C-alpha cells in the first residue's frame, strides 16, 4: 500500500514531529509513505477569505501532485476537509477539474480515520501514564464526522486514561482567519476552551489539528496551566516524552 502524506503547512513549519509521528504510524500498517515534493498549501486561507480564484489556482497543481496516489492521508482535519469537501465545491463550474477533485476527495482521509479504517487492535504500540483529553477540531468533527476514531485509537495506548472536555463540541476560537478578523471573540472562546481543559483534570491535551493546538496551548501557557499539548499522532506513536507544543526544546 502506497500512501501520500499531505503534511500541511502548520505541521511542516511549526510541528514537524507530528509529521514524523504520522509516518511512523502509517509504516506500522505496512504502508510505503511518500511525501510528494510538489505539495503546497491547500489554499484554505484564500478560501476562508472568499478569494476563490486564488484558492483554485493553488488547488489545481496540488490536485495533480496528489492525484496519482491511491491513498492520501492528512494529519489535519481542516486540510483534509479542504481536500475532501471544498475542492469539489470550488470546481463545480469546471467539469474536468471537478472530476479530478472528486477523485482526490474519494482517496483522501484524515489521519485518525485512515488508521481506524486500516489498522485494527494491534496498530498502536505505545504507553502513556496519565489522563488525556481530546479536542475535536470543527473541521474534523463537523465536516468529516471524525469523532469516535481518535478515541478508539487512544484506547489502545497502554496506561492512558481518557477524560472528556465539557462542551467538547464547541470551537476553540482559532477558525483559520476567524482569529485574525475577530480577535476579541476568538480570545473569549479559547479562554473558555482552556478553562474546560484545566477543569477536566487532564495531564495532556491532544487534537488532530495543529492550529487548534497552538491556539489552546498559548492560552494554557498564559494561564500558567501545567497541561501539556501534543498532536494526536505524537501520543499514538509514543512520542509524548518530547517537549509539547509551546514548550522550549530540551537542551
Count structural domains: 2
Order of helices and strands: EHHEHHEHHEHEHHEHHEHEH
Rg, please? 18 Å
Molecular shape: globular
Please state roughly what percent of the residues sit in beta strands, choosing from under 5%, 5-15%, 15-25%, 25-35%, 35-45% or over 45%. 5-15%
Query: How many strand elements?
Result: 8
As residue ranges, the low-confidence spans are: none
Q: Major sheet, described briefly?
A: 4 strands, parallel
Mean pLDDT: 94
Number of helices: 13
> How many angstroms does the end-to-end distance come to?
38 Å
If strands are numbered along the chain, what order do they take across the biggest sheet?
2-1-3-4
Protein structure class: alpha/beta
Helix percentage = 40-55%
Amino acid at each position: 500500500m502506497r500512501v501520500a502524506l499531505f503534511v500541511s503547512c502548520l505541521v511542516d513549519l511549526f510541528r514537524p514531529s507530528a509529521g514524523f509521528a504520522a509516518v511512523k504510524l502509517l509504516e506500522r500498517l505496512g504502508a510505503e509513505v511518500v511525501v510528494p515534493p510538489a505539495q503546497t498549501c491547500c489554499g484554505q486561507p484564500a478560501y476562508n477569505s472568499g478569494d476563490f480564484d486564488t484558492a483554485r489556482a493553488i488547488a489545481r497543481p496540488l490536485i495533480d501532485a496528489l492525484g496519482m496516489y491511491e491513498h492520501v492521508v492528512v494529519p489535519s482535519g481542516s486540510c483534509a476537509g479542504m481536500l475532501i469537501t471544498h475542492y469539489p465545491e470550488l470546481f463545480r463550474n469546471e467539469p474536468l477539474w471537478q472530476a479530478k477533485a472528486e477523485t482526490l476527495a474519494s482517496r483522501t482521509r484524515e489521519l485518525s480515520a485512515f488508521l481506524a479504517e486500516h489498522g485494527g487492535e494491534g496498530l498502536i504500540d505505545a504507553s502513556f501514564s496519565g489522563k488525556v483529553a481530546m479536542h475535536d477540531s470543527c473541521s474534523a468533527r463537523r465536516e468529516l464526522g471524525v469523532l469516535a476514531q481518535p478515541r478508539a485509537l487512544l484506547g489502545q495506548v497502554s496506561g492512558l486514561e481518557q477524560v472528556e472536555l465539557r462542551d467538547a463540541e464547541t470551537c476553540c476560537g482559532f477558525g483559520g482567519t476567524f482569529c485574525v478578523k475577530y480577535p476579541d471573540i476568538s480570545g473569549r472562546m479559547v479562554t473558555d476552551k482552556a478553562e474546560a481543559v484545566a477543569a477536566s483534570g487532564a495531564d495532556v491535551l491532544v487534537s488532530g489539528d495543529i492550529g487548534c493546538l497552538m491556539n489552546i496551548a498559548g492560552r494554557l501557557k498564559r494561564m500558567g496551566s501545567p497541561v501539556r499539548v501534543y498532536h494526536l499522532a505524537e501520543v499514538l506513536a509514543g512520542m509524548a516524552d518530547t517537549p509539547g507544543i509551546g514548550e522550549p526544546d530540551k537542551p
